[in-house]
Amino acid sequence: MWFDRLRGDFAFGIRQQLKTPANSLVIIVTLALGIAATSISFSLVNGFFIRPLPIHQPERLVRLYNTYTNGFQYFTVSYPDFEDMRALRDVFSDAVLEEPAAFSVGVAGAAERIWGEFVSERYFSVLGVMPRSGRFFAPQEESAGERVVVVSDGLWKRRFAAMPSAVNAALTINGQRFRVVGIAPEGFGGTTLGFVPDLWVPIAARRAMWPGDGRNKRGGGGYFALARLQPGATLAQARAELDALALRLQREYPISNTGVRFTALPESEGRVFPLFRGAILGASAAVFVVALLVLLLACANVAGVLMVRAASRRTEIGVRLALGASRRRIVAQLLTEAASLAIAAGALGIVLAWQATTFLSAIRVTISRGAPVNVNVALDATVLAVSVVVVIATAIVFGLGPAIEASQSDLVVALKDGDTRGGLRPSRLRHLLVAGQVALSMLLLAGGGLFVRSLQHVRHVDLGFDPTGLVTTTIDLKLQGYSADDSTRFWDRLLREVQRLPRTQSVSLTTRVPLDLGIVGTRLGPEGTQAGDGANWATLEYAVVDPDYFQTLRIPVLEGRAFGDRDTRGSPPVIILNDVVAHQFWPGERAIGRRVVNANGDRYEVVGVVRRSKYMSVGEDPKPYVYFPLARQGAGAAGIVARGTGDAGTYLREMTAAIHAIAPDLALYETATLADRVMKSMAPAIGGATSLSIVGLMALVLTSLGLYGTIAQTVSRRTYEIGVRRALGARDRDVVLLVIGEAMLLVIAGVGVGVSGGFAAAPLLRNLLYNVDRFDPLVFGLAPLVLLVVCVVASWIPTWRAVRINAATALRYE
Questions:
Q1: Candidate from 188-202, 472-486, 492-506 with smallest mean pLDDT
Q2: One domain for residues 109 and 123
Q3: From CA 392, how far away is CA 397, in angstroms rounded?
Q4: Residue at 551 is within a domain
Q5: What is the pLDDT of residue 425?
Q6: Distance between CA 279 and CA 688 in Å, rounded?
Q7: Cα radius of gyration (the chain)
Q8: Cβ-proximal residues to 11 (8 Å cutoff; 6+ apart), any chain
């Protein structure tokens, strides 16, 4: 029986919506956009932090990290340290590691630069992954470093046309012949969220591909490690064992392991690299909160529309009550009508979200050294479940209030056709909705304002170098099997050819181009720092550069000199510090001529101090940074940074053409003007400012419409009252103050709540803003003013109508 009643209510509700199709369509689209925004934003949160990896029991996996007493936290581990961690059998059943790497891969004569991973023994079995086709590495292949490879499902489809014959096919990797032994399952992309490897090679094969693979060095990093907990073992026990191991290794290897500690994080917490986790979590949470605010704003607006609808159906509702319908039955009917709108909006919103997340999941961007990044944010069961909950909550939020208010109609007044005094007490719920819209608009405007202010600061930040006319590209000679001597000859020839270009002013080489997201660190301390003195070691980022680097970027040399031709392999080791390191090591003293020492005991004379600059992003805080001479260390992969006259884009094309002329088979990546790299680094600030500004403007429009509707309805319902006031001598000014005053009370109340909410929420944005006071007086002063002006304008037409009410006409009509 209840089902038949529900079906009848839905049928009646649909007929009611079809009576005003345009109005119903606007409601559905408005709600659908809010639901879609919420679903999309939750998909981001789900993709980054909730969706488990497609592996066996991911909750039993932990990620292993180095942490330094005075330096990086949650850094990658060295291979010898990893082997000692893997030996902790009381807490770990096994452990694996990955090393991302770029490869030159050839299939049927066509070469392509592809990213993959070197992986340790039992990698796939520890993760519990089964091959789509073929098999994974055999134990003897892993230990002997045989030339075998597992390819991803994507590479199999892209380069082998999904042919079964791909298994046992040949691949040329870095000039060496490998045999494909298996295809990874669809959806598997390793364990590093966002990174998209297309092939896996046994780590024992690394030595044959890249001589001097560094697997014997302790205390450093370079490898991403995971371990599977023993049954019954806990994370706390694993951390205790890692602490004990770190202390033991510090005693056994004081030179390399002093100040090095180990820790573990649950796989779910470590899948986003901890260095970026806070920023990504903050951004994802901010997007989700903004989407919820937009949905709430849409619900408030729709609730106002439904209240107007209910007011127009007052007589119908009165008749239902007179015929014996209970108020609960009226509420159920009206709530069912709201649910029909919510279901239609939910279906449309989920379709929009599905299309949007499918598109977003297909996007690949490149970061450091051209590494591909892609995060699967497509809708899954979790997102769909949340979307359904959102739809149900939406129906309740925008439908319940108007339904309850409509059911409270006075029966006598409702049956008296044409009554206009029933509104002498305007709807408190309607006023509450408008005040809530104003508060939400205030929050969104303040958020947009803070991001705009942050963008203003970022645009004018001192980069520490001059990007005008600078262009960059990167070449990896290791992929082509170049020896150290061959690399040196190639770089010399390349620099000569680029320097010959008519518009070239300066050109240089570096292992880290400006605003590169990669992290390369070394441990240094002032001369005299002892191996066991962990507190005095600093873990610093560095770049290897040639003598013309600082001149090319126009980075000022504050003390001493830049590198020169004399800084070669046969000369004493030298180093250049930025002013942050110089002050950290020798505050208030000159650094030139002093020496620093690394953890291996190597000493470097400080020959120069340069001004700090931006190394990873334009919004980063000042950081310590050091430089080593390229002529002493060499470079298998390097970035070319050149400064030219005229249009930078045109000059970039000329430079790449010159490079291809001498090496047509070499792949260039990270090819861009410095201005483009700066803009790319500013993308989060630009995106935040743009999106929140658009959302803020939409909120203003919705709020002004809501206020307009409320004031217009109030004037209509208070026609008799205004007529009485007119008859008793009220002037135009009095009527204006009556109507505008009521509107301003709503706006001021909403602004007050919004400002308080903005102050409470502002600290949550601290990781997303650059050099902006979270309680910026300009933002929190201007946003309320804008709201007040917009709301006065929105109230003016109803106010003008109220002023034109004729007392005699109003009283005669009554």
A1: 472-486
A2: yes
A3: 9
A4: yes
A5: 45
A6: 13
A7: 34
A8: none
- Of 617, 644, 677, the one marking the end of a domain is 677
Domain final residue pick, 677, 700, 722:
677
Q: Check residues 270 and 388 and name the one with the higher pLDDT.
A: 388
- Please say whether the beta carbons of 129 and 188 come within 8 A: yes
Contact in structure between 293 and 301 (CB atoms under 8 Å): no
Number of domains the chain is built from: 3
Contacts for 378 with CB less than 8 Å, ≥ 6 apart? 43, 47, 354, 357, 358, 361
Is residue 523 exposed (0-12), middle (13-18) or buried (19+ Cβ within 10 Å)?
buried
Evaluate whether 711 touches 743 at the Cβ level (below 8 Å).
yes
* Residues facing 366 on adjacent strands: 372
768 CB neighbour count, 10 Å cutoff: 21
Q: Domain check: are 584 and 600 in the same one? A: yes
225-260 pLDDT tens trace: 999 999 999 999 999 999 999 999 988 888 778 778
* Structure tokens that stand for 685 in this block: 């600030």
- Tracing tokens 């490149």 back to the chain, one arrives at 366
Q: Evaluate whether 461 touches 610 at the Cβ level (below 8 Å).
A: no
271: buried, middle or exposed (CB in 10 Å: 19+, 13-18, 0-12)? buried
- Strands 260-266 and 61-68, sheet pairing: antiparallel
Bigger pLDDT: 142 or 591?
A: 591
Q: Cβ of 280: how many Cβ atoms within 10 Å?
A: 19
Lowest mean pLDDT among 109-113, 140-144, 247-251, 670-674: 109-113
Taken as a whole, the chain contains a residue count of 814
SS3 assignment, position 278: helix
State which amino acid sits at residue 5: R
> Are 322 and 177 within one domain?
no
Q: Which residues of 248-268 are buried (b: 16+ CB within 10 A; e: fewer)?
A: ebbeebbebbbbbbbbbbebb
How open is the CA angle 399-400-401, to the nearest 5 degrees?
100
C-alpha distances in Å from residue 121, one per residue of 72, 148, 217, 223: 28, 13, 19, 14
Residue 494 counted as domain residue: yes
| Beta-carbon count within 10 A of 447 CB | 29
Sequence-ordered strand ranges (E) for 51-173: 61-68, 92-107, 110-119, 133-134, 148-151, 170-173
Residue 533 has pLDDT above 60, yes or no: no
Q: Is the pLDDT of residue 173 over 70?
A: yes
Query: Whole-angstrom distance between the N-terminal and C-terminal Cα of the chain?
Result: 45
Dihedral Cα 427, 428, 431, 437, nearest 10 deg: -120
Residue 390 and residue 39 in contact, taking contact as beta carbons nearer than 8 Å:
yes
Dihedral angle over CA of 490, 493, 496, 502, nearest 10: -90
Distance CA 556, CA 609 (A): 9
Tokens of 522: 């070394």
What residues form DSSP beta bridges with 470? 643
The percentage of residues in the chain with a pLDDT greater than 70, rounded to a whole number, is 87
The pTM for the full model equals 0.79
Are 573 and 653 members of one domain? yes
Residues 362 and 497 in one domain: no
Task: Tell me how far apart the alpha carbons of residues 510 and 670 are, in angstroms, rounded to a whole number.
Answer: 13
Tens of pLDDT along 42-55?
998 888 888 888 88
Q: Using 50, 70 and 90 to split pLDDT, how confident is the model at 422?
A: very low
> DSSP E strands: which ranges in 656-709?
669-673
Angle CA(309)–CA(315)–CA(321) in degrees, nearest 5? 110
Q: Of 185 and 26, which is predicted with more confidence? A: 185
Do 266 and 200 lie in one domain? The reply is yes
Cross-strand pairs, 595: 605
